[in-house]
Write a structure and sequence with these properties.
alpha+beta, GRX_bact, protein-disulfide reductase activity
C-alpha cells in the first residue's frame, strides 16, 4: 500500500480538509504534527520548499498542499498517483 504522509498543525482548517479527503477515499495516512516543533517545521521547509501546512506526500511524490490534493482528486489524477507509487 502506498504511504501517504501529511504534515499538519492543530489549528489548520486546510489540514482538516486534506485529512477528510484522504479518509473519505479510504486511505490510511501518517500525520506528522509540526505544532511547536521547530525541528520538524524546518525539516518540512527543507523537504517541500514551502512554509505552509498541510504538505502532503504520496510515496516519494510531493503533492503539495490541500488545494493541490483537491485538484488532483477532481482531475482523477490522485488515483493514478496512488497506483503509480504503490
Amino acid at each position: 500500500m502506498t504511504q501517504v504522509r501529511i504534515y499538519t498543525t492543530r489549528t489548520c482548517g486546510y489540514c482538516v480538509a486534506a485529512k477528510n479527503l484522504l479518509a473519505n477515499k479510504g486511505l490510511n495516512f501518517e500525520e506528522i504534527s509540526v505544532d511547536g516543533d521547530q525541528a520538524k517545521r524546518k525539516e518540512l521547509v527543507v523537504m517541500s520548499g514551502r512554509h505552509t501546512v498541510p504538505q502532503i506526500w504520496v510515496g516519494d511524490a510531493h503533492v503539495g498542499g490541500y488545494d493541490d490534493l483537491r485538484r488532483l482528486e477532481q482531475q482523477g489524477e490522485l488515483d493514478q498517483l496512488l497506483a503509480a507509487q504503490g
